[in-house]
Design brief:
alpha+beta; two-stranded antiparallel ribbon; 6 strands; rod-shaped
Length: 229
């Protein structure tokens, strides 16, 4: 959980009403929030932005799953809930676990005056903008991870198909069953120190099964021990 506390005063906000210069500054700075999928980075910058432009002090609470949330009591304040889209564990590694959402609260504290509706709207704008940044970046990360996962699956499918074709060629050439053909390809891979998929691709492309010196297509079977009367 990230908790941030910033305190300052700003003369542009008087009697609970924002001066025009304060609103203009807030609208300008909202576009300076960092673009990142890390909520601690984005909302940490947001907390700094709120003081002194919007409030006397700001408390930010970001709660990860299975953690307790900071509770505030007393003094005049505005509380804006934060809700962030979940991200799969290990950055979308495909483990199958459900995405874990995050939540939190942005609390603006006013020590000198009561907050107005303008303060609430400004705070909501900041939270909405920061949440949109985090959620968009997380969506892009998920999309990129899904693309990589699809590419790996396609590569595995192509490799499996090539190995299957190579096994068929070896079976026909040496009159082996599927297990024996796969074993031969594996022994060629080990003897030549090349990946099995590389050996299989070569067999498929050339139709040639190049046995390294001393490697038999069918290993010699051990002779049974001679029985003596």
């Amino acid at each position: 959980m990230l908790n941030g506390l910033a305190t300052a005063t700003d003369p542009s906000w008087r009697d609970g009403r924002p001066a025009q210069s304060g609103v203009a500054m807030m609208l300008e700075l909202v576009n300076r929030l960092p673009v990142s999928g890390d909520p601690e980075l984005v909302f940490g910058a947001l907390a700094e932005l709120c003081v002194p432009a919007l409030a006397d002090s700001c408390v930010l609470s970001l709660v990860r799953p299975n953690s307790s949330q900071l509770r505030l009591v007393g003094t005049a304040m505005i509380q804006i809930p934060i809700s962030l889209a979940g991200i799969e564990c290990d950055q979308c590694s495909g483990c199958g676990r459900p995405a874990a959402p995050q939540s939190g609260t942005l609390s603006l504290l006013f020590h000198r005056s009561r907050p107005s509706s303008a303060h609430s709207l400004a705070a909501q704008l900041l939270v909405d903008r920061a949440s949109a940044i985090v959620n968009q970046q997380r969506a892009q990360l998920r999309l990129a991870a899904l693309g990589n996962r699809l590419h790996n699956l396609e590569l595995a499918l192509d490799t499996s198909r090539e190995i299957g074709i190579a096994i068929g060629i070896v079976m026909q050439r040496y009159q082996l069953d599927a297990g024996g053909a796969f074993d031969l390809l594996s022994r060629i891979s080990q003897r030549t120190r090349r990946k099995l998929r590389v050996v299989a691709a070569e067999v498929v492309d050339t139709g040639v099964i190049d046995l390294p010196a001393g490697l038999l297509a069918v290993p010699d079977q051990p002779q049974p021990a001679r029985q003596y009367p």
